[in-house]
Amino acid sequence: MSIIWTIIIGFVAGVIAKFIMPGDNEPSGFILTTILGIVGAFVATYLGQSLGWYRPGEGAGLVGAVVGAIIVLFVYGFVAGRSRRAI
Questions:
Q1: Are 34 and 22 a contacting pair, CB within 8 Å?
Q2: Residue 86 maps to a domain
Q3: Could you tell me which of 49, 56, 65, 74 has the fewest CB atoms within 10 Å of its CB?
């Protein structure tokens, strides 16, 4: 059930992160933004567990998932911007 909850929180976090951090290099599609939000929620969950903020089996909350999604969007924008300049 923890993974399903992380996916739901990640979906919401991806949408919120896209509104917080708009830009040219960020994904423009709803599906890609949602997937990056889910990845951000998993990043926040595992990073929080490794730092001791969350117990094993405990997922990140909405705020942590939004921060994780913003980090993933930032990295995606950096990588996408770099590959566009190379072409």
A1: no
A2: no
A3: 56
